[in-house]
Structures are given as structure tokens and as C-alpha cells.
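Still learning. Show one?

>
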Amino acid sequence: MKVILSLIIFTLSIVSVLSTSYVNFIPYKKGSNCKGGNDNIKGVGYSVPTDSCITFDYFRNWKFSLSSDSTVKFSAFSNGTSSDLDCSEPFGETVVVSNGQCIESLGEHYFDGYFVPQRSNSYLVTISTTPSYSEFSWVNSFSYGKGCHNDDIVFASFATNFTAIQSEDQETVFCRNKEPLYNYCSTYNGLPYCSTEYFYYVCLTEEPFISSEEEGSPENPMGFYKTTTCMGDL
């Protein structure tokens, strides 16, 4: 009997894993109609699981629901806490998109408030059993649990090389030799200057992704962990 129960639980676990679907928002140059191959893939994109309550930034929560006709509905929700996200009462409009659709804009729906592109993009919506982030150079991956594990990545925001990000310092993100870097320009004593720095953003957790190694922080608390890495070639 125990063997049968174990097999049932194991089978259900496999079905659960295999049935996971991802919605990918692949960024394209504005006005490209999401065509033209890799030459037109530019900007910030997202890979998110369906039927899960998630947050990229602790500003807003998101939930993406997949229908049998391959349409996806997504809504924003008021933020909860890292251990108790709430996706019960949406605010604002519910957006409906379809697999293979090219949408000209996400409007104000930049899912990751810390990673907003300076230029708006068109987006190709795709549905897959594996997320599409690994094809891109700069990847902000989010895992859930107690610590960071590459095989437990739940969702991601990502960017092509040399994408400009909204910030006070005109930041541009890129990868070199599989290392994440950013270039920023500002002024000092009234004089303009630019600098390039390595981006060390590894295994950060809690609101808003504070390092678990900081003094007073519990060791590996349960929650979302964020890591920035370089993966693909786009």
C-alpha cells in the first residue's frame, strides 16, 4: 500500500512539473511586427509561469492565467509580503493576449519596476513548457525557497546586450565574457563622466531583495531570491 501511495504521489509530481506552462514576452524593435529574426530582438523581456502569484519588485504582484484556446489573461495586484503574496483582488484592467500575437506595447505593464527599458518595445507572446530567458545575455532570475538554486528558477526578466534602463544615471546593461556589467553616466562637480562597473547582484532576498548576509537578516529565509547572470548570446 505504501508503495502504491508513493507511486501515486510521484506520478502526480511529474504531472505537475510537466503541466507547467510559461508565458514569454520576447522584446522586438518597435514597429518591426515582431519579425526580422535576431536582428530585431532588442530590449527587456519576461518569462513567467502560469497560475502563480509572483512579484518581480515588491511594488505589484502579477498572475497569468492560460486558457485552453491559448489565450493568456494577466492582472496586477496590490503587493503583500515576500511570504504571503496576494493575487485575489486585481486592480486596473485585465489584459488578454494570445500565443503568437505581436503586441505593440505593454503600456504601463512593466512587470519588473527595477528593470524598465528607456525605449518601449513590441513584444512577441509565446507559450512554452520551458522559459525563454536562457537565450538572452542579461538575465535577472528569480527562484523561490531557502537560498538560490539555478534549477529552481521560477521566472525571469531579461535583456539583450546594451539595453538602456530607466534610471537617474543613464544605465546601460551588457555582458562581457559572461560577466554582467553596466555603464552609467552622471555629473560630478558640474562635469559629466561615465563609468563601467561589474554588477554583483547574487542571491538577494526579501523586500526589496536585500542580501540575506546583511547583519540582522535571518539566514536563508523562505522567499523569492534574485540573481543576475549572463546566459545566452542575444
